[in-house]
Target: Ribonuclease H-like domain-containing protein
Amino acid sequence: RESKARTTLLQSIPDDHDADFHYMDDAWDIWNAVKTRFVGNVESKKMRKSMLKQEFLEFRIGEAKGLHKGYDRMQKILSQLNQLKAKPDAEDINLKFLRALPSSWSHVALTLKFKGGLELLSFDDLYYKLKTLKVNVKGYTTFPQANLDQAILHLTGNAIEKGAAKIYNLITGADTEEASTADDAGEFALMGVTSE
Model:
């Protein structure tokens, strides 16, 4: 039985590492050495955790990648961080994902950031909200089941003020008159954090 366990373990080791374990006679010794080498010791886990945190901090979604692929990549990072017991809190995850969105999403991301409540949303809820939101600012319509990847955010000339007010109104439920008093995008962004 010991011989069978040893043989099975040695066959499962990649060829380029076979020589490192072949001299061991005991299956239990081989198993412990394999765990240390491939699963990692405390030091390698710290290094892996550090690398994953860095990957999380530098996370970006390219224009060509799209929302779904970005979501999948973020989920993979979060899953690995969770295994190492280093998963960030919900608000940090949501803010990071909104900041990582391509520039074409900036109006939607800005509005969601300033609306607040991101700490109450799970990452999956945020993704669903982004996926189902579609705003056509020119026509002032929403299509709740449409894919956000196809959202139209064309704002030109005088439509910028009206469009920003409409987005603010649609997402926050605030008064359109109040939102339309913003002179520029910076003022519009600040409206989400004022207490008036």
